[in-house]
Design a protein that fits this description.
CATH superfamily of chain A: Tetracycline Repressor, domain 2
Strand content of chain A: under 5%
Largest sheet of chain A: none
Distance between the termini of chain A: 63 Å
CATH architecture of chain A: Orthogonal Bundle
Number of helices of chain A: 9
Helix content of chain A: over 70%
Oligomer: homodimer
Amino acid sequence: MARKKEYIESEVIDKAMELFWKNGYETTSMQMLEKQMGINKFSIYSSFGSKKGVFLECVKSYRKKLLAITDKLKDSNNGIVGIKEYFYDFLEFAKDNNDFIKGCLVTNAANELNEDSDPVIKNQLSNFTKEIRGLFENNVRQETGFTEVQIQEQSDYFIVSMFGLSSASRVFNKPQLHIFIENIFSNT
Amino acid sequence: MARKKEYIESEVIDKAMELFWKNGYETTSMQMLEKQMGINKFSIYSSFGSKKGVFLECVKSYRKKLLAITDKLKDSNNGIVGIKEYFYDFLEFAKDNNDFIKGCLVTNAANELNEDSDPVIKNQLSNFTKEIRGLFENNVRQETGFTEVQIQEQSDYFIVSMFGLSSASRVFNKPQLHIFIENIFSNT
DNA sequence: TTAATAACTAAACAATCGGTTAGTTATTGG
DNA sequence: CCAATAACTAACCGATTGTTTAGTTATTAA
């Protein structure tokens, strides 16, 4: 009945994801998105509605991409050791093709939020963090001898540490980050 | 010989600092700076040359403000316990008048850096971080029984943790941050 | 083959970005 | 008291922000 799209939405979203991942939300402009996604502004708007729409789709796609290491964590069933492996897996995951560490798409975006930021984006990023914390909590529960309070505290400790690692990964070098991980888990 | 300035440069810088602290570098616009500093663009440019100039002055002023807690750390002479106290002091320092935690001005700005960012700003923020790491190293040296390698590793661990705490402080709540600090120092 | 429809191109939108400049006002030394 | 000078106001600069729209091209059902 009409003309076909000349691009695949999931493909152009993955390209956009790279930009948001490296630069965060605000720094990534529509002009950059046009170039990276290889399609016109009109196409971007007709497919995703707005810049925010593109970003939210990218977060979804990022979540899927992250399944490679969160599934491993889920299936491992070896408690806190599994979480430690996840930390190392994340550092590999956070690299681009040139070994430049770009951190976590969600953490990078969360770091530029303030009181006036878009509530929908805020909420989406918050849910993402809670979901990862939930995975940590499941693994902490596999350990024996923890009270419920201790389980919650350990889970909080690991999610805050993970957030810290994501942020720090853009600034510090590999040996420093490894020392950080080793110390995070040294008392377990 | 000519008209007097109607503002005090150190005072308007302190006002600008609040903005950069809360919002980072890019999000803070000249328009916002005009309003917050209470002076015209012309005055801003004649006093500080550029937006970057204002920011760099703010970093200097921030460093001075931070002396309140870094001096305490220096004078404490009680090793790693002093560093732990510094972490707690920082959380208080990072609050605004409404108890909203705005993190660290330097960390917030560092979190929005990428490959294309201004090298002068990059360098200034990097030096700042190295200076704080140096303070940590001095305190670690006060402990006995550490090899030189262990001193370096502990110092790296604490500066990465501090960076993590600064970033996380904008996202997580007070109990979670306290648990984080307690665990950071639990094996010492 | 043609009319309908949707995806394309490209120009334009108002708003805002960091930064400049012409013209006015206030202060001061001579 | 007045000429020199610097700080003020406010309009303006070109570039870029996210977004929209008019006009063209390709596809498909009838």
